[in-house]
Amino acid sequence: MILYKFIDYFVFPILSISILLVFIRLFKGPRIVDRVVALDLIITMGIAIMTAYSIRTEQEFFLDVAVILALIAFLGTIAFSFYLVKTKNSNQS
Fold it and tell me: By the 8 A CB rule, do 55 and 78 touch?
């Protein structure tokens, strides 16, 4: 089986189904932490889709976009964890 067919018939459908399931977790919650983790996971799967699409179309530009998106997602996760630590410390005071 050629790599392109594997990406088209296996990778893209699996990633699409998993994004759908994570969107359900994003909307259902129940806590804000679950929603933030789901949003981070959606971004990570978006990076995986961009990477697979970059391999499929043989365009390196999408890899650059995926790396930038990964850096932004990492900074967002760090900012949220910093916010949680600050709110936890202020509630204990």
Answer: no
